[in-house]
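User: Here's a structure from my thesis project, written as structure tokens. My advisor, Dr. K., wants to see whether a designed sequence matches the one we expressed. Can you design one independently, without my sequence as a hint?
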């Protein structure tokens, strides 16, 4: 008998994997369950996966969700071992190393032999499990989320074979992702990748995106008749409320998340350093940040105390955010128009002042402009950055950053939008 309240969700990244990409569908699954759905998640066995970071704390969010973990073949593990010395680190996130012939060769291999990506070795195993569930339980709805965008090829094959409803979730662009230009892709590789993307865009019943604006326009140009649904990244209200706010005697600046040389992070560090003679400052950093970047920050800001905490669990990261007097955010160059991160929403929900470096006219910039003590400032506009930082220092202990209608950005409310698209009641 067909059960229209069951939905298969295909995602490579799943707890105990950490990172923002995991949290999106972890919380969607959690709140779909609360709305009466039976989400069944098909993912990779974590013992065989190439997860760059782990966060076992997220497992408690999915304890009532049925999860099927499959085998995989990971050519990426070999690539990762050659490039980083570890089979577990995976590919570098947010940037492509291009120093020296070895890194350039690795980038070429990644761009021309792993099409659309090196995770596709998981697909045959996920496909075999999915077919059994569809045939035995009459499942009529499936969702694929990427990156890795090879996951969408599962949806394409299953819809072709079974005629089921399928939605493809684009957390990031596919062929238009900003780092593709650094992968030395041949015209053959670009065309093959574009054909795969075209098939997905034209055959899915609908496309989910994290933002509207530029990302949707790029995809609409390739599939003008497709239905696009914006399901933003959000914040988990229950988690934010459960973590108490703490105070520091010294002005406390916080950055959490991935940090790469493809982000403009040095100018705020230099500005903080220049203000440290009048105001003692401590900078806490948490996330996947290389020793080389930490060293650059220390050299740019020798007068401030640098506290690098490494990768923290989601709960620990929220606690660090809520202990800050100023939160820093840096948009990836080339991705200004394509994303409003879940982290940025958590920043705003914390009510701590937010300084973000990037394009003020981006969607994220316009969102920050609505808040009472937040701003997106261009990397070259150091005068405006300094003014914002001084204002935050002057209002330490009194500053409150309010975003009107912040409730519409809760993961629970965004899941209601997803429920409506899936046909829930």
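Assistant: Designed independently from the structure alone:
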């Amino acid at each position: 008998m067909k059960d229209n309240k069951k939905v298969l969700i295909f995602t490579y990244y799943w707890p105990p994997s950490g990172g923002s990409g995991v949290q999106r569908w972890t919380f969607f699954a959690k709140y779909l369950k609360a709305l009466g759905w039976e989400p069944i998640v098909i993912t990779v066995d974590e013992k065989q996966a190439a997860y760059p970071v782990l966060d076992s704390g997220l497992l408690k969010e999915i304890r009532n969700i049925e999860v099927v973990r499959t085998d995989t073949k990971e050519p990426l593990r070999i690539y990762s071992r050659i490039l980083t010395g570890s089979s577990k680190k995976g590919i570098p996130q947010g940037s492509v190393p291009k120093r020296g012939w070895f890194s350039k060769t690795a980038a070429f291999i990644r761009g021309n032999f792993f099409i659309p990506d090196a995770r596709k070795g998981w697909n045959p195993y996920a496909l075999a499990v999915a077919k059994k569930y569809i045939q035995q339980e009459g499942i009529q709805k499936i969702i694929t989320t990427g990156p890795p965008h090879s996951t969408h090829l599962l949806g394409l094959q299953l819809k072709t074979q079974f005629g089921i409803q399928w939605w493809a979730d684009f957390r990031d662009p596919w062929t238009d992702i900003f780092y593709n230009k650094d992968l030395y892709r041949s015209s053959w590789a670009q065309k093959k990748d574009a054909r795969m993307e075209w098939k997905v865009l034209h055959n899915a019943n609908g496309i989910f995106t994290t933002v509207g604006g530029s990302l949707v326009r790029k995809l609409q140009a390739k599939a003008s008749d497709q239905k696009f649904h914006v399901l933003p990244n959000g914040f988990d209200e229950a988690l934010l409320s459960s973590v108490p706010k703490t105070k520091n005697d010294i002005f406390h600046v916080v950055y959490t998340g991935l940090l790469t040389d493809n982000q403009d992070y040095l100018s705020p560090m230099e500005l903080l350093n220049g203000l440290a003679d009048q105001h003692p400052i401590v900078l806490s950093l948490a996330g996947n940040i290389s020793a080389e970047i930490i060293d650059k920050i220390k050299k740019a800001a020798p007068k401030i105390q640098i506290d690098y905490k490494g990768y923290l669990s989601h709960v620990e990261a929220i606690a660090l955010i809520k202990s800050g007097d100023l939160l820093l955010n840096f948009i990836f160059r080339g991705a200004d128009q394509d994303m409003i991160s879940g982290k940025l929403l958590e920043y705003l929900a914390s009510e701590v002042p937010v300084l973000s470096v990037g394009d003020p006219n981006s969607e994220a910039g316009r969102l920050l402009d609505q808040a009472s003590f937040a701003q997106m400032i261009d990397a070259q506009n150091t005068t405006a950055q300094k003014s914002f930082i001084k204002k935050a220092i002057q209002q330490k202990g009194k500053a409150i950053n309010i975003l009107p209608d912040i409730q519409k950005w809760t993961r629970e409310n965004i899941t209601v939008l997803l429920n409506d698209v899936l046909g829930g009641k």
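When you compare it with your expressed construct, this may help: The chain is about 40% helix and 15% strand.
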